[in-house]
């Protein structure tokens, strides 16, 4: 529908950002250097000082389609937290996790626009800045890694599915299957934990605090974003979090899945899914447990 009167369109846009119990577009959330789209789900019964989960779609996806594919909104209605479903329309709807600006704190990339969505939501809904989380699948997993690497001061924890380590695609001409250097997705970028730490800390050299807790999931039969990328993510975050491998727990959280525990299991865990390809289905209830919700 086309509105010829600017005041009417502006009024409807303002109303859309305040509707509860529906996925609605927010058009003005602050600086948006890469022209992302913000959609928000605010439950009818909002908790006091609610938590926020940023949910990121895979390549070729959208906020609307990923909201329908997952259960985060129904869980938000039960628990009273807020979901942000963002969309990118560039590079085959894949998040930019390859350019220099995207791999930097306040560098003008997709990551900066996403963080501004969170800051807007904290201000508008009096959300708890200590309870901000991110999750995503495939390209959304890759961006979750980048966000928590470049904005460790914003996020408390992340859970991601079938992606690659932050910085794995650095210097690639793009981040989609059609534009990316395939070396990373093929599992051929191998580094030590120490090398990954150096790369991540260069993304935000001023940061001297701790890094967010991380859970990462990957299918052993993934031949699209190959399985060795799970090990690289675990190496990266074990180095950043200062934890080492402690044990494997089989058939957790379900048959055929192996939980890979680092330290006491409160900072870093991985999940290896036997026979699962690209991508591991979202385990929303497990994500909420990991986030403490």
UniProtKB/TrEMBL annotation:
One of its GO terms (cellular component) is extracellular region. Keywords: Carbohydrate metabolism, Glycoprotein, Hydrolase, Polysaccharide degradation, Secreted, Serine esterase, Signal. Its main location: secreted. The keyword Transcription regulation does not apply. Its EC number is 3.1.1.-. GO terms for molecular function: carboxylic ester hydrolase activity. Pfam families: Esterase_PHB. It is found in: Secreted. GO terms for biological process: xylan catabolic process. It comes from the Eukaryota. Residues 1-21 form the signal peptide. Esterase involved in the hydrolysis of xylan, a major structural heterogeneous polysaccharide found in plant biomass representing the second most abundant polysaccharide in the biosphere, after cellulose. NCBIfam families: esterase_phb. This is Carboxylic ester hydrolase.
